[in-house]
Structure formats: structure tokens, C-alpha cells
Amino acid sequence: MTLSYGSLSIAQLSTLIQGGSVNPVAVAEQVFGAIDDHDDKAIFISLTRERAMAEAHASSKRLKDGRSLGLLEGIPVAWKDLFDVAGGVTAAGSRLLLRDQAPAAVDAAVVSALASAGMVATGRVNMSEFAFSGLGINPHFGTPKNPRSTDVARIPGGSSSGSGVAVASGLVPVSIGSDTGGSVRIPAALNGIVGYKATRGRYPMKGVFPLSGSLDSLGPLCRSVQDAVWIDAAMRGGTTPAVRRKPLAGLEVVIPTNVVFDDAEPGVVAAFEAAVERLSAAGVMFTRLEIPAFAEILQLMASHGALVTAEAYWLHKARITGPDAGLIDPRVVSRTRFGEEITLSHYLDILSARTRLIEAVDRLVGDRLIAFPTVAHVAPLLEPLKRDDQLFVATNAKTLRNTLLGNFLDWCGVSMPCGAGDAGMPVGFLLSGLARGDERLLSVALVAEPVIRGETI
């Protein structure tokens, strides 16, 4: 049986490449062969085959000459369709932008950073149009199917839908996504992989198509926390990670008792609580308490509108009210139009409340991390959501509910698989830290991941 390089973790593939067991050119060729042969043609919007082969050949030569750039040398990476990749159009999942945008003259800053680490850019992966949905449905380029489903087609989660499915399908070891309300962590959870959302501002945003400047953040979808640590260092221009493993014994973690478990599927709760039991046995100390800010955030959204909607409306106003509005997903247009009702006074009230709530939660949580299910349900069926607008709106709100709390409060977070719920579908365990606590969060997650997965006790 031929080893599928795209199905390996970065760490596994790096070992093979650095040890000379496999050449980056052979890796790239096999990855493109797997993409070409894959039944789901909605995963990738476009391939950067010529660039990738040039990068793979350059990587191979460096290795032959003894000049490896490091751990990520020759590793394939896919990019969500909102990162500038030189020579291609950054369409953000939109036919309108694909038509109107000029090709990018240079790479986005983080694309350049990973290229400088020796990584091989395979192409652009699908996404919710303008990154404005947690479900991953795209009427223009098709919707990638969740590969974990064994019965019928289920959603991939969004907005980084193609990123989640490309990794979960074994096509690439890592894909880089964006996260404004959960768009890295949701598809990671629903597809049974790891997704790391960095603190907003941890990486340069130059060359990244925006949705909400106050909330947008970036992060990798990959197979392990170790992989996320390596990618994090390279995206920041580092050659080696600064993250060190933290012991679990004595670690204090808060489990919120309000909002995040409301209407959660029993299978999701059971998988999460089983992971909590395993972590407790490993020495983690859990405290269950109410976080009043959670309810206040949801109430603020109900009374004033969502911060992301206000900023998305400002960004896309001309598009959704202009003559080409019919070329945009009607659900994206409808959701964005709600921003028209958010007054300047309400917008400023939201920003003021955000500052106050961040400070209040920082005082309440203190030195501890926070844990709860990434999504309150497993991946739902795709076809009913495509047909029913009301079901789409309700499901999208519930899918985003848990993760958007962290975006509003400026947290960082890692979603890790913790078991299965209904229909054997994956459940995500979200471990979060306060703003700029990324190194500590990743240090803990490195050690906690096998326990959360149930691989060790």
C-alpha cells in the first residue's frame, strides 16, 4: 500500500523529508495526484501547481546541498481563498470578486512567511462567501462534503470549509484559515482535526481579505497541536517554536455553566465530559462557574446587532446594494444587510461594552484556562440547510454561538477532537486562553491533546 503523504501530520512528513526517505518533489506530485483523483471537486477553488512544483524542486535542492530551512521544509500547505497568493485572484469564495479583483501582485505576509520556511503552496481552498457563515455552504463553488460522515452529506463547517475538509480528507497536512467568529475552530471540530485560533494581531494581516477588523484572526487547521506550534512559529517569522510543554498536574481550568451547554446534543456533552474526567485523572483542576459576560454578549447582539455585521456591512455596502448584488449568495446579502440597522451610536456602545466585558472576564478567569465544547452539535445534514432559509439561520447562529464568545473577548483557542457524538461524528473540545496567552495555551494543549483524544490517561 502506497503511503499517502497528505494524510500524515506535519511532524511525520517532516521526519521522512529531513531523513531523506522521501523527496519534496515526490510529495508534491503525490499530493496533486490525490487532489486530482478526489471525488469532491468543491474542496479546492484553484491549484497553484506550477508554483508548488518550483517550490518543491527548490526545497529538494536545499536538502541535497545540506541547507534545509527547517522543520517545515517541503511540507505542502493549502490556503483559504482570502489570502493573497502572487499571480492569483483573491476571491474570498465569491464569483463577484473573482470577476472584479486583479491578481495579487505579491504574497500575503503570512504566505510569504511560510514560503520562507520552505513550505509548498498547493492552492486555494473553498470557503463561505466573504467568510460570513459558520456552516461552510457556498452556492458558487460548491460545498465541500464532511469526510467524516458515514451516512449522508453533512456540512464541513465554516467559514474555512475547504481548509477543514482538505486536511480531514488526507489531501494536505495543513491549511491556513481565518477565524472571525469560529471559522478555524468550527470546521476543525466538525471534521475531527485540530484548529488553532491565535490571538487577534498575533500575525501580520497584510494581504488578507477582511471581514471584521475588530475580530479577524488567523490560524492553522492540521492534525496535531505539535503541527500548530510549528506553523505558529513560522507564521511569526521564527525558525524554531518558543512553546514548551507544560505539566497538567495543578493546571486550573474554568468550565462555564451558562450559555455554552444550552441545547447541546447529549452526545456532545458526553464526549466533552469524558475528556474532562480523563484530564481530571491527569491532575487538572476544574472549576465550574457562571461567566455573566456570555449572556451579556448575546443580549448585546440582540439589542444592538453584531459587531461583525456592522463592520461587514461597512466593507460590503457598495456590493450588496449595487447592480451586482444578485451575484452574491442571497443569504450573505441578507445577513450583511442587518448592518444597515446598526447606528453609529450602537456601534460605539458595542465597542465600549466589549472593552468593559473583556476586563471583567479577565478579572474573573485570572490565570486559568477555559474549556467547553467547540460546537454544541455535530455536523448537521447538508441538504436541509440548503433548502430551508429559516433552518439555515437558526443552525448558523447555534453553530457560531460558543466560538464567537472567544472572538468577542479577544481569546486564543485550540479545538481538539475528544470523541464522537450522534452518527459517530466528531466532537471538538475547545481549550481557550485570554488575549496574548498563546504560548501558555499551546504549551498546555501539547500535553493535554492525547488525554483529550483518549489516547492516554
Describe this structure in words.
The chain is α/β, with parallel strands linked by helices and 457 residues long. The protein is built from 16 helices and eleven strands. An eleven-stranded mixed beta sheet has the order 1-3-2-4-6-5-10-11-9-7-8, with helices on both faces. Strand 10 and strand 11 form a beta hairpin.
Mind sketching the topology for me?
Elements: H1 10-18, H2 24-37, E1 44-47, H3 49-64, E2 76-80, H4 95-100, H5 109-116, E3 120-125, H6 161-168, E4 174-179, H7 185-191, E5 194-197, E6 217-222, H8 225-235, E7 252-256, H9 266-281, E8 285-289, H10 292-304, H11 307-321, H12 330-337, H13 344-365, E9 369-373, H14 382-387, H15 389-408, E10 412-420, E11 426-433, H16 438-453
Helix pairs in contact: 2-3, 6-7, 8-16, 9-16, 10-13, 11-12
Give a quick account of the main beta sheet: strands, pairing sense, barrel closure: 11 strands, mixed
Q: How many beta-strand elements?
A: 11
The proportion of strand residues reads 5-15%
Helix content: 40-55%
Give me the number of helical elements.
16
**Which stretches are low in confidence, meaning pLDDT under 50 for 5 or more residues running?**
none
Radius of gyration: 21 Å
Terminus-to-terminus distance: 32 Å
Structural class by helix and strand composition: alpha/beta
Average of pLDDT: 97
Biggest sheet, spatial arrangement of strands? 1-3-2-4-6-5-10-11-9-7-8
Quaternary structure of the protein: single chain
- Shape assignment: globular
Helix-strand pattern, N to C?
Answer: HHEHEHHEHEHEEHEHEHHHHEHHEEH
